[in-house]
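Figure 3 (text version): structure tokens given as input.
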């Protein structure tokens, strides 16, 4: 049955429609926020997926270009693979939802958010995040929500909920907050060095709106929500777990206490083999084969218990560090001789190589999406090859994780980059993960800062990144232990990965992943404080002693830039018919040339002499003829009334009347001037039609030079 529910979000109507379309899905919602319309459908498989030990949730955010009145630019003229922004939005939808499904649930769940119409003032991403929660809440799929989400901006020091397009352009903060009625479930932010206290206040203000929307969805759920279906539980077999815990807990605990990841993994494998042999000996080969997967899950559960208990009760980490101790750090620059900038950053067994490349502004990335952003001058890409974790898998290109980590590093560094006017280059940084034991995205931030400074990019301040982890007491959610600089196993078995990038002045990026049902303000405040202290240490004691400021000169292998500005109406003269003029300049000098719509001209070359030559050629083309100006020109044709002279400026000619050729009266122009003769002339006037009238400059010795 068709139902409509209406409320307000940030002073604008938020409407939910259900029961009209997609009747075969488990739950369907159309969200209307202003003139932005997003349809969300959720489905679940009837049976659990075989052979997996995780919850198979899939989220797809589909950008339809018809939503903004565009035809796709691809050859096939249809939407292709999702854009990076669509992938990042899918991740943002996923993260607050995933912890709220039952831990023992293994049925496939698919969330599809389809963007049908976009009004740029009203975010389709927020509509999709709220719609996904609403669709799951009213469906028969087991789900512990609802959640809701908002964007938060900071304009002229004022916190704005769901800022408009105009406000977003001026905002010092791009923050997405998701949560339940009681807690914060996800934080994603990019910021212009915003202080911790202002960031926390922005999160709190966002949560006020989230609470209202959660209550509203809960009301919908009570009225039209379907009963949740029963499912097969994949809770770990109690008897098998009890056997393993009773007999091997100390073995597992001892095996985990090792700083080296590879040695620790080998220790755990050895204990797992010991457990398997003991099970076969006690219960027989047949029962072992029957319960093989149960044994594996029980070992995993015991590992998790041991790691968490060591941290929570003993305040001891598997590598022996204190709770707030950072792994050994090191960094260096200039590893690669021919690139424009390079740096290696190492944190424990995590190691990232970041390489900077400078290019023409026209080489910036073009974007074909549903928002108003059409290009991106700074590109940060993150690669995570299988060898970085000691695995033998062929590369298949970047996945959602790689795109997410690259985007986080990009957000962290964009606020400190120079403007295009200050530094007219496109900038690409690639972070290659060489070895991974947790916090690779934060190592990418540190390494890329060093790489940019080594390349001579005049960043405002260096940026560092660090993450904190969390282990909570299952019996008391207010009782917790927080860790600084988490490694892989602590991320895997812990409750939180709270990543913060920033300068000594403030925060530039946040990404928070959690496995519990939410975070309190106290936890967020403490995470900010711990990351601030850690960033200060990394910047002052590790990074700045290696390179204290951006280099004054770019690499000799990077293109030098000479720039000028011409009148907009002169652009066509520089380009010429079919690009003929500009191509002649490029062929003659070997430079690369960018011309912007506002008349900015950028000439790129590693040879400054060639750059200056090209600049002179362009300035000759755009130089304007002025009344009173003296020019050395060439006669192009003669007539009965005078001679036409090429003034050497973009093919512009002037008329030298027969009466202005000589002091003496002459009957025929050809008696004095012929085609090809060179003559110095002065511009007498330029009439309304742009016709140029000349007079000859006569010397005492020689009137003309033939």
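Below: residues designed for each position.
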């Amino acid at each position: 049955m068709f139902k409509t529910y209406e409320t307000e979000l940030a002073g604008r109507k938020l409407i939910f429609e259900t029961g009209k379309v997609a009747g075969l899905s488990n739950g369907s919602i159309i969200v209307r926020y202003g003139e932005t319309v997003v349809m969300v459908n959720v489905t679940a498989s009837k049976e659990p997926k075989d052979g997996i030990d995780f919850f198979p949730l899939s989220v797809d955010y589909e950008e339809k270009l018809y939503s903004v009145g565009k035809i796709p630019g691809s050859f096939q003229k249809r939407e292709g693979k999702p854009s990076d922004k669509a992938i990042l939005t899918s991740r943002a939808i996923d993260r607050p939802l995933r912890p709220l499904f039952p831990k023992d649930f293994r049925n496939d769940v698919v969330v599809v958010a389809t963007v049908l119409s976009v009004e740029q003032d009203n975010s389709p991403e927020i509509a999709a995040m709220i719609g996904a929660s609403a669709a799951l809440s009213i469906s028969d799929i087991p789900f512990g929500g609802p959640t809701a989400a908002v964007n938060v901006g900071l304009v002229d020091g004022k916190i704005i909920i769901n800022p408009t397009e105009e406000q977003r352009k001026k905002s010092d903060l791009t923050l997405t907050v998701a949560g339940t009625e009681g807690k914060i479930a996800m934080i994603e932010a990019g910021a212009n060095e915003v202080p911790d206290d202002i960031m926390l206040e922005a999160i709190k203000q966002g949560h006020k709106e989230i609470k209202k929307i959660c209550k509203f969805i809960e009301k919908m759920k009570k009225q039209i929500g379907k009963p949740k279906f029963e499912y097969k539980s994949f809770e770990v077999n109690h008897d098998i777990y009890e056997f393993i815990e009773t007999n091997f807990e100390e073995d597992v605990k001892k095996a985990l206490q090792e700083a080296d990841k590879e040695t620790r993994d080998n220790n755990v494998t050895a204990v797992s083999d010991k457990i398997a042999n003991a099970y076969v000996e006690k219960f027989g080969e047949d029962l072992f084969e029957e319960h093989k997967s149960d044994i594996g899950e029980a070992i995993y559960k015991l590992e998790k218990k041991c790691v968490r208990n060591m941290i929570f009760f003993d305040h001891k980490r598997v590598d022996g560090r204190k709770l707030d101790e950072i792994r050994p750090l090191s960094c260096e620059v200039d590893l690669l001789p021919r690139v424009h900038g390079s740096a290696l950053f190492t944190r424990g067994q995590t190691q990232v190589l970041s390489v900077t490349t400078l290019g023409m502004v026209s080489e910036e990335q073009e974007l074909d999406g549903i928002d108003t952003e059409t290009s991106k001058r700074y590109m940060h890409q993150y690669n995570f090859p299988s060898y970085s974790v000691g695995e033998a898998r062929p590369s298949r290109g970047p996945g959602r994780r790689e795109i997410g980590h690259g985007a986080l590093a990009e957000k962290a560094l964009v606020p400190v980059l120079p403007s295009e006017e200050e530094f007219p280059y496109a900038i690409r940084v690639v972070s290659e993960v060489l070895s991974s034991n947790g916090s690779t995205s934060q190592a990418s931030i540190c390494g890329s800062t060093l790489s940019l400074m080594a390349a001579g990019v005049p960043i405002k301040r260096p940026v560092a990144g660090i993450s904190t982890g969390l282990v909570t007491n299952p019996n008391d959610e207010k009782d917790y232990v927080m860790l600084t600089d988490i490694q892989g196993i602590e991320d895997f078995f812990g409750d939180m990965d709270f990543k913060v990038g920033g300068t000594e002045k403030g925060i530039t990026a946040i990404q928070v992943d959690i496995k519990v049902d939410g975070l309190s303000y106290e936890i967020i405040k403490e995470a900010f404080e711990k990351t601030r202290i850690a960033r200060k240490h990394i910047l002052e004691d590790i990074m700045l002693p290696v390179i204290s400021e951006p280099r004054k000169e770019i690499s000799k292998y990077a293109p030098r830039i000479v720039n000028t500005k011409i009148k907009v109406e002169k652009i066509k003269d520089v380009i010429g018919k079919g690009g003929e003029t500009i191509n002649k300049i490029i062929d003659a000098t070997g430079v690369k040339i960018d011309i912007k719509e506002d008349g900015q001209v950028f000439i790129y070359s590693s040879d400054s002499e060639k750059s200056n030559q090209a600049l002179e050629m362009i300035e000759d083309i755009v130089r304007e003829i002025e009344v009173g100006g003296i020019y050395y020109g060439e006669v192009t044709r003669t007539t009965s009334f005078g001679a036409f002279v090429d003034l050497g400026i973009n093919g512009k000619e002037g008329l030298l009347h027969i009466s202005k050729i000589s002091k003496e009266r002459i009957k025929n122009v050809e008696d004095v001037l012929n085609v090809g003769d060179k003559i110095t002339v002065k511009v007498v006037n330029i009439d309304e039609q742009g016709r140029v009238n000349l007079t000859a400059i006569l010397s005492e010795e020689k009137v003309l030079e033939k």
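The longest strand covers residues 36-48.
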